[in-house]
Design brief:
Length: 1300
Amino acid sequence: MVRSSASTLSTIQAMRTKLVNIRDTAVMNAFMIGDTKLCYEKNFLFIAISRDETGTTWNHVPDELIYMAVTRSSALFMISCARAQSELSLAEPCDPQSCQLPSCRCSTTTIPGGLEPRHTPQFVVLTFDDGVNVINTETYRSVLYGRTNSDGCPAGATFYINHEYTNYQLVNELYNNGFEIALHSISHQTPQTYWAEATYDDIKKEIADQKIQMSHFANIPLDEIKGVRMPFLQMAGNNSFHVMADYDLEYDSSWVTTSFVEPGLWPYTLDYESTQDCVVPPCPTASIPGPWVMPMKSWFDLSGLPCAMADACFSPPPVTDEQAWFNFIVTNFERQYLGNRAPFGFYLHEWYLAINPAVRNAYIRFLNMINSMEDVFMVNAAQVLEWIKNPIPINEYRQQPCRSFTQTTCASRSCPVVAEHNGMTYWMTVCNLCPVRYPWLGNPLGQAVRRTRSKRSHGGLDADFTMKIYILIASVLSAALCARAQSELSLAESCDSEACQLPSCRCSSTAIPGGLDARDTPQFVVVTFDDAINILNTETYRSILYGRHNSDGCPAGATFYANHEYTNYQLVNELYNNGFEIALHSISHQTPQTYWAEATYEDMRREFADQKIQMSHFANIPQSELKGVRMPFLQLAGNNSFHVMADYDLEYDSTWVTTSFVEPGLWPYTLHYQSTQDCVTLPCPTASIPGPWVMPMKSWFDLSGLPCAMADACFNPPPTTDEQAWFNFIVTNFERQYLGNRAPFGFYLHEWFLAINPAVRNAYVRFLNMINSMEDVFMVNAAQVLEWVKDPIPINEYKQRPCRSFARTTCIVRSCPVLADHNGMTYWMSVCSDQCPVRYPWLAPPRKPALRISFTVASQYEFLRRIGKIMDSFSMFRFIAVRVLQVAAGVQLRRMHQFRCIRLHLKRKSGQRKDCDMRVYVLLASALFVVLGAGAQSELTLAEPCDAAACQLPSCRCSGTSIPGGLDATSTPQFVLMTFDDAINILNTETYRRVLYARQNSNGCPAGATFYANHEYTNYQLVNELYNNGFEIALHSISHQTPQTYWAEATYEDMRREFADQKIQMSHFANIPQSELKGIRKPFLQLSGNNTFHVMADYDIQYDCSWPTISFTNPGLWPYTLDYASTQDCVIPPCPTASIPGPWVIPMLSWFDLDERPCSMADACFRPPSTTDEEAWFNFIVTNFERQYLGNRAPFGFYIHEWFLAINPAVERAYVRFLNMINSMQDVFMVNTAEVIEWVKNPITVSEYRQKPCRNFQRTTCPARSCPVTADHNGMTYWMTVCSDQCPVRYPWLGNPLGL
């Protein structure tokens, strides 16, 4: 305690009086709400002062605290937590006389020490970013370990490591192999703007705390951790460097330069103003002595565009061309080597080498080359700084001793640790004791959280304590009202083995049921697959599971945990009828994982009890056969899921992972009594819940000894290309049970893992073949295991029992396009029912919505309640509000329950009124929004049925399948519309050049195509190139944002900013006449009712090609206008209903896949041919083409995304064959969309069409310019290539399409 004299305290009281009179908002806003506390760092002290609702409360602050502040610091007003900025002064231009090595250096391209380039060592700094784990360490070992420079010293590299998913044993290994370990943040969180706006305290928690964390868990000396790289290379202004200065971090390697590359910028300090270009703002502007800047000098790709990291170049060499990549690396290296020899940075992520063997080979060749060069040295970043501080010529550098460092040991330990920030369980490998909690921001060592009580102050309860009381009360009320599950359950007691007896009860134990010896116990193998069942994965199931038998002659079993979304219920029925068990995996399978961890009884009822009904109905499976549950992400929900199972007759759960009870293995058990199973994924059940069984998921162990709940989720599995290694791996895990207590062996997997890894699939099949031939092993479903556990019998009796029987069912299959209310999407369902559902089946509304109050909903409720009070005070407003509802809804609301609620509310009837309040306010707010916001609709009239006599070409056409001009099909040109969607850039343009350029139709005119281009990531120089090659450019929105509902609900103003503004934007940046920009395609083919077409009419956009049709494909629907009501089917509502003269609709005639399911785009078919079968794809295309060609010759649309051709060479070859075919046909013409409309307006026969002149257009030039531009909407820096002599000031976006 500080003792204060009476005079000093008297002075303090006077200061207190002055402070009470302060009314400066800026100062008051700096005070923190919370307990009075001291924060002491070095020579800095601040006081956090509590305040009440009326203003700042000073009187209860102890005088001793103020005395300490006065005596410790001369600045009484250093109260704000944001000390970082307040203590820094603006940097001045560098004074070379004052700024001298070794502690200071101006930002400059001059070589340190005044050396000539030929005497200067060329340093090469190899770096890798992100987590270190067993997968990428294999690459590091193979390409880096054991290398030496030409001077005999070990070659170096720097690893910028973030915390999450990092294996600290391997970090220690890298350190002990001589590589530098540097910091890359604890969280590495998104969005990027988090880092741009990060405060001093944010950076302290991310970087300074990580230094302690890294040292602790990887057992690396603190003084060896010197460097920082910010995530996403996103600068944080002065804050990161200020933290570095305060916490003894030597350098930062995040600051990209594109202007100081040739000659290159050498490292420098921030004592003075930096001259480096600020590519990813905000950049530091203050004077911050201490930290060094290691500039990241950009590479330049094949288009001359800069790239900060080698794996982020926009136009790199082909990743399959080793020689091209080697040349590319050397070219960028020589920019420094043949220049001023500034350090050459080779910045990379390991995954890029792992997936591109040719790039990896080029990388190794480059390292081999530089390791043999006498004047080049592969070092870490800290070694570069050491040389700069004391620059010496090459000949002296080669004579100096090699770097030495203190090697350390690693007492490795693997730890399952629960994270408080997301509820997940992480497996950490550390070089010391396990942390109690998962280390994270604010708790970098994962220590137990010590909770303190808030105290009553002289001025009453402080705000923080009061808030905690409110939260506690609300939590208790919420628990009392909502969590009925918990209230009815009692805490489970230790198991009483005398009372708990089979068949209905079993204690959690590794003892074999029935007291059998292991050699007499059947070894059950439970093969399971998770997630949706569809045509793609069912092919795998048919090929590896169908027709199998165990050695007793009975069919082999398996269990499918199927979720609802994207499931084909016809195929579920097929699996069931082939003898496999169908179990539940939820309706929504939604993210985040915390949804499941925090799920209430009601949530679980809607997800699983309702899914049982749903699955039975749509797949035609008896409810009694649906017995099992597996929670998504293997995330338990405490007692709630088991309580629902007990109430809704679900027999078992197979979600609960164990890593402690594997050898010997834990057998299935019930929850009458307390479980002894380890709780790997909190929360686990703690109540006594008779009925449901637990089927423990016994972990496998990978090659590093780490546990994995599912075989496809192991951290260090065998190589996926090594069949024998995988077979041995499976058998090793199997034998852990087979040679032990024979607890059921679970082979838990997702089908995709087998589909993409043929060698693993072969090993899987070999294993099944092996166990199917073994006399004491039985491949069964999960429910069969429980049947045996309830009545355990030895092997010889088990083999004599009858095979399982079940009631087979039929499937009257129906395919249904159904709209989902929860996301606005249209799903194709295949169901075993004579009727399609009206809406897409989804989670039902909660049964007691008034009781399900979360804090977010509660806050919204309070907000609406207060608005309601205001509404109540104005009787006229109440009257208007009701009339608004009537008009907006277009119905007589007094017939609806909602209107009854309004009447009760307005008449102030108590009791009944309370239940209505929320709905009333929401309805009023929604109605007001409709009336105030949807101005576009108010100007339109409802379209009437088409009057063919009044609607005449060229300006009007009714929706119909009749051929324009009354022509015969044989006299009608067959138009083919080739279109591509999304951004245009250097990657996809290569494909366009290869498959489209220089094509001609049989009449000698250039073949056409239409590109629907969105703005983000588009290269406008390449857009100009496509336009000048005769292709049509059309609009696909500025933002192309998600979710899809944004487009479904878009207003007139939204559409104006997305499309009318994009027309101006496209014309400006690509230098294309606005008159040539005629068409639109909506993102996700999501219509917006009348709004899009209304904007098109107002802003002279001629046509839309977004509206799919399934019903009008044979004969096909021709283009038409919206003067009158459309007869086209509305596949993705809302569709236009108003009369909107002007714009044309180009119907997207669906293709049909191998199952006769419709698909709007060729790359979105549910069951297309194999992507490796060129002939099958060619036939598939021709079949769909002939639907129009042999019919009424409506335009045939070939709608696709370039990536589908790029990754599927066989499909691309089929595509080219088709184009070659139609280009040679006398009555088929490959044209752009606008050309089709021109013909429809003035239809002529094939013979006349062949004689007409070819299309001409006004070509333009492109003075290309590459521009780094920062976006206001997300803080990112984009590289734009535009056809303009000036770069935009800001990244063009909604509301600012030209980036002014």
